[in-house]
Specification:
Blueprint: H1 2-23, H2 26-33, H3 42-49, E1 50-51, E2 58-59, H4 66-71, H5 79-95, H6 98-103, H7 110-117, E3 118-121, E4 124-127, H8 134-138, H9 146-164
Antiparallel strand pairs: 1-2, 3-4
Helix pairs in contact: 1-5, 2-5, 3-5, 7-9
Protein name: Cytochrome c domain-containing protein
Organism: Ruegeria marisflavi
Keywords: Signal
Length: 167
């Protein structure tokens, strides 16, 4: 029985960082661990400091692999934190620069917008104070095309879901 207990304890130690990783808000993690030395917001970091045309992502000036740097503990990151940030940078890259080009003139950052004004209620993104359905609102807001409105909804929902896990 001691062998089984030891094995379960070892497994719990190995799984704990993964569980923590799924609970962390990547925007907050970036702001707490990276923003003092890099751009204040993760989106700016990805678009201004990384070569987004490279796979894997590389530093624009250094040419070094972002994944390799994070995995070596750059910024004193834990392995779980490095995994969260790398996935976050990839998600930002995949989502394109729609927020930067269509929304940023009025809204500072997507994460700031979500924190201040949006919330997931019954799996629907709504205005935190207005109760407005954001999927419907985006169809007539910001001169977004229907595909852009859908894309932006996905970005905002991803941010809201990650923020909700840490509330």
């Amino acid at each position: 029985m001691h062998g089984l207990t030891a094995a379960l304890s070892a497994l719990a130690i190995l799984i704990a960082p993964v569980a923590l990783a799924s609970e962390a808000d990547p925007h907050q993690l970036y702001e707490n661990k990276c923003a003092a030395c890099h751009s204040p917001h993760a989106g700016d970091f990805v678009w201004l400091e990384l070569d987004t045309g490279q796979e894997p992502l590389e530093g624009r000036n250094s040419g070094r692999s972002v994944a390799a740097m994070l995995e070596r503990g750059h910024g004193r990151l834990t392995p779980a934190e490095a995994t969260i940030l790398l996935a976050h940078f990839q998600a930002i890259r995949t989502s394109g620069q729609l927020f930067r080009t269509k929304c940023r003139m009025c809204h500072d950052t997507a994460s700031g917008l979500v924190r201040r004004a949006l919330i997931l209620r019954d799996s629907r993104l709504t205005g935190r104070y207005t109760g407005r359905d954001i999927a419907e609102f985006l169809m007539v807001h910001g001169r977004l095309t229907p595909p852009e409105a859908q894309q932006m909804l996905g970005v905002l929902e991803r941010i809201a879901a990650s923020s909700a896990r840490t509330d």
